[in-house]
Design brief:
503 residues, mainly alpha, 2 strands
Length: 503
Amino acid sequence: MGLDALLEAFLAVLNGGSFLYLMTGVILGLTFGVIPGLGGTTALALLIPVTYTLDPLNAMYLAGGVMGATSFGGSISAILLNTPGTAPNAATTFDGYPLARQGKAGLAIGAAATASALGGLIGLFTLLLFIPVAREVVLSFGSSEFFLLTVLGLAAIAVSVKGKLLRGLIAACIGLLIAFTGANQFTGDTRFTGGIDYLWDGIPLVPALTGLFAISQMIELALKGGSVAEDGGRGEAVKMKITGVGSGILSVFQHWTVLLRGSIIGTVIGAVPGLGGTVAAFLSYSSTAQTAKDRDTFGTGNIKGVIAPEAANNAKDGGSLIPTVAFGIPGSAETAIFLAILVLHGMEPGPTILLQHEREVYGLIVALTVSAVTASIIGLLLSRVLVLITRIDVNIVVPVVVLLSLTGVYVLEGRMADVLLAVAMGILGYLMIRFDYPRLTLVIAFVLGETAERSFHQIRLISDGEVFGYMLGRPISVVLIVAIVITFLLPTMRSAMARRAGA
């Protein structure tokens, strides 16, 4: 069944229209990846209203093209400008930029392109192997397990933000308050509406996420001023000669163990909700540097310092889709917004995605696979052109992105209130950036809040009010409860171990 769906998705992408959507996503992903501060999250937020009129499979191709291409786009500006296009690409600057300063920009870009493509393929192959197993696991889950999964997802994300456990929990509480706004689906009572009729049906997902990511990022860029990469580039990167690309491609195969290690780390870290590409890239880089015989050369232009983080960065896409497609728990900010696209097309986040929308899930896998490869090829051909985008003044970038965002939000339902909501969420998102509160925790709580509330009420009805006793009577629920407790205790355990090691 799975192979048939995969083959059907591959044949469908060869259709002229579908391939056009995929390539559009790749170009957008590369462009938004190159521009520091934007990234795939902003690109997907802008595309949410655009996909409204599309066939679900074409929407998967468009979104998959963006997700598969953003990572490599960010590595181009990281190598040439010492300014990472996305947060995970920061690890690439350690050795990528020194190589560019030595006249080996082509070597670094060639290695980054190849490692990104192969890392993405390895991560997606892992996802493909997991899907049949996930289907069986999902069928054994009930209301109790779904409720505990949402709690575990929130706990894992809050704890994963190092040194920000309290801030992560506060952000999660705000997300739950937003999710619970409107009429209670069981009692019919309205909550947190302030007498505003617009809020009776709850906070719409698309305007909220568009404001939280796209608008907030534009506010930050506008207040910073200058050009997008003003601090990193100083114009020198545009003049660099990009030669030796073939040697960079060959170096990845010469250091295949680095590629494999980085891909495995990226897949595993990506599957843990809340960790994402930044943790995967830095962990891959540090593990490679610590185990290498030439560890002293890292940071001065070692090509392995480019291969390791780029392999992990693209492999994490396949890993982050595991909790998304299996349980409806986003593994990253990008997949959280991707869930909004699923909701827009009538696909309920959670196990029903696997059971009822297999065609679309495999379509996404195909999109990510093809985009990971084509983005690297296109990026190599257009690297000098793409890096020029980072020299554009933010006074041009910001109005264009804001206009597109708010227009898309308005066109979706034709309500001015949606535009005002997007602006309000954008201000909230900027304040969270300004005071260093994790937005991902808020988004996941917002996305999962309805599922958690519905599952909890179902447990109450099934158990006649004996919620905890009912949970303890189900083996999988007991395992999840233990996992939640351990997750919350992890920071304390880490601190105790650190103090003991210091003593």
